[in-house]
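Honest question from a wet-lab person: if I give you the sequences of every part of a complex, can you actually get the arrangement of the whole thing, not just the pieces? Trying it with mine:
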Amino acid sequence: MMPEEFLSVFGGGDTPLYLAPQAGVSESPFRRLCRRFGADVVVSEFVSAEGIRRGDRRTWEYLRFDVAEHPIGVQIFGAVPAAMAEAARLVEEVYRPDFVDINFGCPVKKVVSRNGGSGCLRDLELVQAIIRAVAGAIEVPTTVKIRSGWSDALRNPVEIALRCQEAGARALTLHARTRTQMYGGSASWDEIAQVVEALEIPVVGNGDVWTGADALRMKEQTGCAGIMIARGSHGAPWIFREARAALDGRPAPTPPTVPERFAVMLEHARNAIAFERDETRAMLELRKHLGWYTKGLPGGKALRQELFAVRSLAQVDSILAGYLERVGRGDVLAAGADDVAGTPVPDAALVVV
Ligand SMILES: Cc1cc2nc3c(=O)[nH]c(=O)nc-3n(C[C@H](O)[C@H](O)[C@H](O)COP(=O)(O)O)c2cc1C
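Yes, you can. This is the full assembly:
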């Protein structure tokens, strides 16, 4: 594929910025917000091919997206080529995403034990069979997301990536850690550079981009075609604006003030209600994001305790307004500076991938 074609398919502009697929995080309400802050491309949470084929209602609901989210990729996982092909075809037929991404990176036991996600990385024949089956079943491009390998002893990102390219992947994202590393250590950007060097298809770099400056460093060190951000976007969708400024050589935009941050939280809450329709359910799903947005604020711990109990938009609104009022009176600071580390966000809803 020519670079121009890649850019037109995947978001246009120089070095498209991707919101990473993230179970429990890159849901439609957050994807819309990230698009507004400059993410050029978004990817859904991973969705099980079996769930899609079974017609599982909740799975199909996860797949919904808003037109404002385009360009969007739907990510699927599974270990049976024919089932993956069927799932991809159904998703394309019903939702018309811009591309279908295959997850070869998920390290979670439940997925890996059935050979899904990074489990496939131990069997490159299977990886290729899955890509061929999916690419042959759909018209939109098939892309893949891989880790650097299964373990330190089986660390072979270039080999995996070449096999993916050969099987028909039109773009590849490398999260440059092995499965056994989970999130430990640091992502090897050298490996991203090696894969960029070896492949003809566009390579999207992923791992440890926490600031706009990191995005620029990743681009300079690896020559990657695109940059994908996951954890750096938590409670900070404006990271995409910062990354774009850094890549363009512009000064870093001023970080949002607390009232601006709160306005984003309310926008996120409204997006969530529009998507879920059931306000209580929307607020339950939003709680972890509310926790992230308030990390590091003075008096943040007490604020989060209030926010973790919300069931309606009106409650979020009044808690945030109350906080700003207390800040205005000086009460918050009097209560002691917060916890920059923050209270752990309830993560029962998160699958760590
Ligand atoms: C909560 C969470 C959920 C994730 N879910 C997925 C997923 O569904 N599919 C996937 O390919 N990667 C998933 N990942 C991995 C990220 O896409 C990304 O590869 C990884 O976090 C490294 O990028 P980062 O350093 O920018 O966080 C997830 C990561 C997190 C933190």
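Two things worth pointing out. Residues 258-276 form the longest helix (19 residues). Residues 340-353 have pLDDT under 50 and may be disordered.
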